[in-house]
């Protein structure tokens, strides 16, 4: 967890639940926080990033833990509007879509670097009220293809979607880490 600069529990804070990449282990949580932490602290965001218990990814077997985790966090911390932003990197991006699709009442926005709904038949209308931000590396062809399909489907539903294909980048997009994170924080409602 990351608390913003100047954190006090006597006011509400925008909060981001972010899922880590890869196997979603503790080491991947640490690696993933490198993308969000500095900009979140500067902008006054709380960031919560859980590790998947026993390596059971959040879009698979640990999926049922998302709501209890979010509700426990909402009970302990002063979260602005009592709703979270959700994000993730790679497998974390897939997990972010799973979380939002399963619990659209809990989330205001989705930001993935990259990510898409794993289930091609997902009810995208259920997340149509959220701001959705998707980033994919230009040479990450399989992910770009799935994200372009997701973008088209969400746009057809009238959702507020931003998609950027990052030139010269592959599956990881170093230009979005650290200070580059301002690009996706600027898009949050």
In sequence order, what are the helices and strands, one letter per element?
EHEHEHEEHEH
The separation of the N and C termini measures: 21 Å
Q: List unreliable stretches of 5+ residues.
A: none
The number of distinct β-strands equals 6
Mass-distribution shape: globular
Structural class call reads alpha/beta
Proportion of strand residues = 15-25%
Share of helical residues = 25-40%
Rg from Cα = 15 Å
Major sheet strand order = 2-1-3-4-5-6
Enumerate how many helices there are, as a single number.
5
Largest sheet features = 6 strands, parallel
Q: Would you tell me the overall average pLDDT? A: 96
Account of the 3D structure:
The protein is 32% helix and 17% strand. The protein is α/β, with parallel strands linked by helices and 189 residues long. Strands 2-1-3-4-5-6 form a six-stranded parallel beta sheet, sandwiched between helices.
At a glance:
By secondary structure, the chain is an alpha/beta fold.
Describe the SSE topology.
Elements: E1 15-19, H1 26-43, E2 46-48, H2 66-76, E3 84-88, H3 91-102, E4 107-112, E5 131-137, H4 141-156, E6 160-166, H5 182-185
Parallel strand pairs: 1-2, 1-3, 3-4, 4-5, 5-6
Features:
5 helices; alpha/beta; 189 residues; globular; six-stranded parallel β-sheet
